[in-house]
Design brief:
acyltransferase activity, transferring groups other than amino-acyl groups, 804 residues, Rossmann fold
Length: 804
């Protein structure tokens, strides 16, 4: 028989997870609902396997019990899981672009083996809190991987745990400090479980510190402590039952012997009885005189103590614990930094374990957990969990939704519930009715066959991977099949900018599939030469080495920092230094090429997500998938000033994004404006070390969509493209305060450049997101230039040389 309160806990957990996936910024702690599931699983596994390793089971019976356990778990979990995976793959194959489906296909391989949680060990994956904003329909299967791996280990684990409870030797008298919690003969079992829990919790912190959250988040041993908390909770309640039976037997013997006793308080677990009962019938003997429980003074005193403790532990504490658990899961103001999340998770696990331990049908919150709606939601929670994330993701993908509004979020929540209900009734309930395990095995085989069929290359994929048509862009490809990859994309784009005829020729030559595929790979084409060393270039480590010493904990961040030096064709000793973030990184090759006649040495020192001047924490840049690394960026700003002082460049080119935190700050007084003060302070300090010119950027264009991906999707669906462009007037209005600050720069050597003027047209009030003739994206995301955009920006960069 199911415990109704456990179903209620499942309902709370699944609701918190779904709300997190719909509104990750509004419910930042909802992911902790999975921790509640793990605790419940540990509790129920301990209950299912409570006789494993005990003397009551012979070896044949032990083998039969374990085999039956695996059969039940497989029938409950695997068929419906594979069915949802297969359906998800089929929909992904239909609506997703090839580049996105390639990632989904890779994720599907891992999900079919129930090892999604281990994917980050072997693949270069970001952590869960970043990937939740990406299009990965199998992302949520990591928790099923953890569950399955725990189920595989649980018979061995429970055998060892119960073995510790089999010893006929009694624990030492020191265990009397737990007289009503742990039976003396089970004390070693409790210590073993607690030790395993602590080791798992420590390993989670260790792996996080040394390998990052992407591995520690889903690794089974890092999650084992949560299952162990559930196991401990069950073992304690089981000890209560055993000890209570012994006490009831003693009580009956005492009644038969006509000994009058008075009960002391005992925490007692029972579905139908109060939480508290008598610990034991106590006979107080003083000088061989029996004291009856009818003594008024003793009776009144004990009755007062009983009522007070009964009120605390039966009503007040369970209510408070469940309220705290709900607050931790649902309230956004408790969002904390990632390195403190294990502590937050610890409270969730502790509170869940206590609720499982203290369950009883007489305390008020129990009525909340066991109402029919919550029990029903708990019953379908597994199916609801399986289908909710693909449903949310497909809606976001198809309609290009970055963040759900309240209305559409509620509609999505209800839609996932309706689909879960239908799948539960029509599929999952029928699977559970199967009596023969052979039928279950056959069904699993069918699902696996369909899943592997979905992994086959698509017709759409074939059209894009190898195009067997004549291409004659430069006279060398005629009559030959060519692969549309990064190199081919660059060749096409170079042909566009080479001559005015390139636009019309390509527009007439490229098919729809080719345009879609080229837009898909524009991001890769943009970053293709990021870490390549071209002739005359060398990677340097002078500032990165210092960077690593200043922020040793930012190992992943340091991998993206670029420090490079190259030789130009200038006849004198002119030096050029490029600093900034990813925007500087992206245009570095074009700057090198366009300016190479003017310098002898080109230095580059860029760090992603950072601006070259100091930014205090309250002005730091935060988006759903990116947060400015405050400490690392502070170190970068120091090293930039040091690099400028050391190199003494003739020309300093600064490129960075004017983040939203800058745009939102009103500009009223130039003398007291904080942002302008930070910029002017930086420029005042560095301009004495720059000999000729400082190029300083104006605000960047910011589009609503990731242009190259969205353009490819809309071309595939035949949807409207005009919405991808933005209004030039809106751009100027949005960045009005930033433009005003630029007018008050205190820098004689500064030349402000505005790249938006090159891609925006004031006549038709439009800033172009893509090239109208070829339908290829100028920006690959919301603000970074694609490879096409980089080439189209060359005339603008060249024009900056005019005043030189």
């Amino acid at each position: 028989m199911k415990r109704a309160d456990i179903q209620g806990l499942r309902a709370i957990s699944i609701i918190s997870v779904i709300l997190y996936h719909i509104w990750p910024l509004n419910f930042p702690n909802g992911f902790l609902g999975v921790d509640v599931f793990f605790v419940i699983s540990g509790y129920l596994i301990a209950k299912c396997l409570q006789n494993i390793g005990t003397n009551s089971l012979s070896f044949p019976k032990l083998f039969e019990t374990i085999l039956d356990f695996y059969k039940r778990r497989i029938q409950r979990i695997v068929p419906i899981y594979l069915g949802v995976v297969c359906a998800t793959a089929s929909i992904s194959r239909t609506i997703m672009l090839e580049s996105d489906f390639q990632q989904a296909r890779l994720d599907m391989y891992w999900s079919l083996g129930f090892v999604t949680n281990l994917q980050s060990l072997f693949c270069n994956s970001k952590d869960y809190f970043t990937e939740v904003f990406s299009y990965r329909p199998f992302l949520h299967t990591w928790s099923l991987g953890v569950e399955i791996q725990f189920y595989l280990l649980s018979p061995i684990l429970m055998f060892i745990i119960n073995y510790f409870g089999n010893s006929k030797k009694q624990a030492s008298s020191s265990t009397n400090i737990f007289p009503s919690i742990i039976l003396k003969q089970n004390f070693r079992r409790f210590i073993f479980c607690s030790l395993l829990l602590i080791l798992s919790l420590i390993s989670q912190q260790f792996i996080y510190l040394y390998f990052g959250s992407s591995i520690s988040f889903g690794f089974i041993f890092c999650r084992l402590w949560q299952f162990m908390a559930g196991i401990i909770s069950y073992l304690l309640t089981n000890d209560y039952l055993i000890e209570n039976e012994e006490k009831e037997e003693k009580e009956e013997n005492n009644k038969n012997n006509k000994i009058i006793v008075w009960p002391y308080i005992l925490a007692h677990y029972n579905q139908s009885d109060d939480i508290f009962n008598c610990q034991k019938q106590q006979t107080i003997i003083n000088n061989n005189i029996q004291i009856s429980s009818h003594s008024p003074s003793i009776e009144n005193k004990n009755q007062i103590n009983y009522n007070f403790i009964n009120f605390l532990l039966k009503y007040l504490i369970p209510n408070i614990i469940l309220i705290l658990l709900i607050i931790l899961l649902f309230f956004p103001f408790l969002s904390i930094p990632i390195y403190l999340r294990p502590f937050q998770s610890s409270f969730v696990v502790i509170f869940t374990s206590i609720i499982l331990f203290l369950q009883n049908n007489n305390w008020l919150i129990y009525l909340f957990l066991t109402n029919k709606l919550f029990v029903w939601l708990g019953d379908i929670s597994y199916v609801w969990y399986l289908i909710h994330w693909p449903t949310i993701l497909f809606l976001k993908y198809f309609f290009t939704i970055d963040e759900f509004s309240f209305k559409y979020g509620i509609a999505t929540f209800i839609l996932t519930l309706i689909i879960a209900f239908i799948v539960e009734i029509l599929v999952d309930a029928q699977i559970r009715k199967l009596k023969s395990f052979c039928s279950v095995t056959f069904l699993i085989g069918i699902f696996y066959a369909f899943c592997f069929f979905q992994l086959l290359p698509t017709y759409y994929s074939g059209q894009n991977e190898r195009v067997a048509v004549t291409k004659d862009f430069d006279g060398s490809l005629g009559g030959r099949a060519v692969t549309i990859d990064v190199n081919f994309t660059r060749l096409i784009i170079d042909d566009i900018v080479k001559s005015p005829e390139g636009h019309s020729r390509l527009a007439n030559t490229l098919s729809l599939y080719e345009k879609i595929r080229i837009n898909e790979i524009l991001q890769s084409a943009t970053y293709e030469d990021r870490y390549k060393i071209l002739p005359g270039e060398v990677l340097t480590n002078r500032w990165i080495g210092k960077f690593a010493k200043m922020v040793p904990e930012e190992r992943n961040f340091l991998k993206a920092v670029i420090e490079r030096k190259s030789r130009g064709e200038g006849k004198d000793s002119t030096t050029f230094l490029l600093v900034g973030n990813s925007h500087a990184d992206i245009i570095s090759r074009e700057l090198q090429d366009e300016f190479k006649q003017n310098y002898s040495v080109f230095h580059m020192f860029t760090a992603p997500g950072c601006v070259p001047f100091y930014v205090p924490e309250h002005l730091s840049f935060v988006t759903p998938d990116h947060q400015m690394p405050i400490k690392a960026c502070s170190a970068y700003s120091q090293l930039v000033k040091e690099a400028i002082q050391t190199i003494q460049p003739d020309y300093l080119f600064i490129a960075f994004r004017w983040y939203g935190s800058f745009e939102d700050q009103p500009f009223n007084d130039a003398n007291n404006d904080e942002i302008l003060g930070l910029i002017n302070s930086f420029l005042l300090e560095i301009q004495k070390n720059v000999k000729i010119q400082i190029f300083f950027p104006a605000p960047n264009l910011l589009f609503k969509y990731e242009t190259s991906r969205e353009l490819a999707k809309r071309l595939w669906r035949g949807a409207e493209l005009e919405q991808l462009h933005i209004s030039y007037k809106e751009h100027l209005k949005k960045n009005n305060w930033s433009y005003q600050r630029l007018e008050h720069l205190n820098c004689q050597k500064c030349l402000v450049y505005d790249l938006s003027t090159h891609f925006c047209n004031s006549t038709n009030d439009r800033c172009a997101a893509f090239d109208e003739t070829t339908k290829l994206a100028i920006f690959f995301d919301t603000n970074h230039l694609s490879y096409l955009g980089r080439q189209l920006a060359r005339p603008f960069l060249r024009s900056l040389l005019t005043p030189l």
